[in-house]
Amino acid sequence: LYWYTHFYLHNVTGMPVIRPLWAEFAHDEETFNIENEFLVGDSLLVRPVTESSVTEVDVYFPGKEDIWYDVDTYEVHNHGRVNVPVTYTKIPVYQRGGTIVPRKLRVRRSSQLMQNDPITLIVALDSKGTASGNLYMDDGATHKYLHRTDSSVLLQYTYEDNILKSEIIGVKHFDSPSWLERVIIVGLKPGNYKATAFNGKTETKLLTSYDNDKKILAIRKPLLSMAKGWHIKIH
């Protein structure tokens, strides 16, 4: 989903999917000579392990005001260099604070079998408590998106003032069977949170749980269409 969306955005804007750090952090001169890290889109930082028999690697986190979250543990990192542990099954990948990344977390034997799987939105908050991201969807097989308005959709997600919004950009629309299975909000201060989904005139109270150790709020089974507009209010 995230890759597919950024290949679409590359087709529209020309921005490469895989980028050097300085493409997003031109003000940070230390990124100019870093060649062992890269960004996927504007949201994910990857530090591949190319050295043999190592148990830790050095990772540089760009952006003096930026927050970075480990995509597996949600451990927080700030600007600077840090030695992080690595294994055969774990390489350093981090989501940038202020971004929203859609993911399909049900493991199947092929990506084709995941075509209509439900989606999880990972909302990684920045220092201001906000985040945004995109999702592009089409049938994944034909070129109908080129000449029809009912064969693709580009959505924008925003999180601000404790409200997560899904909005369609432009006039195109697409009837996808994919639905929102879970929302994970990372970097939220401890609290007894509740959530309500608003879908047109329908209002639904949602199941929530907060992890004090990881500082994440999980909102379970909102059952909202991934190709439509809606919003979820946290209170």
TrEMBL record:
<dbReference type="InterPro" id="IPR013780">
    <property type="entry name" value="Glyco_hydro_b"/>
</dbReference>
<protein>
    <submittedName>
        <fullName>Neutral alpha-glucosidase ab</fullName>
    </submittedName>
</protein>
<dbReference type="Pfam" id="PF21365">
    <property type="entry name" value="Glyco_hydro_31_3rd"/>
</dbReference>
<feature type="domain" description="Glycosyl hydrolase family 31 C-terminal">
    <location>
        <begin position="14"/>
        <end position="101"/>
    </location>
</feature>
<dbReference type="GO" id="GO:0090599">
    <property type="term" value="F:alpha-glucosidase activity"/>
</dbReference>
<comment type="similarity">
    <text>Belongs to the glycosyl hydrolase 31 family.</text>
</comment>
<dbReference type="InterPro" id="IPR048395">
    <property type="entry name" value="Glyco_hydro_31_C"/>
</dbReference>
<keyword id="KW-0378">Hydrolase</keyword>
<dbReference type="GO" id="GO:0006491">
    <property type="term" value="P:N-glycan processing"/>
</dbReference>
<keyword id="KW-0732">Signal</keyword>
<keyword id="KW-0326">Glycosidase</keyword>
<keyword id="KW-0325">Glycoprotein</keyword>
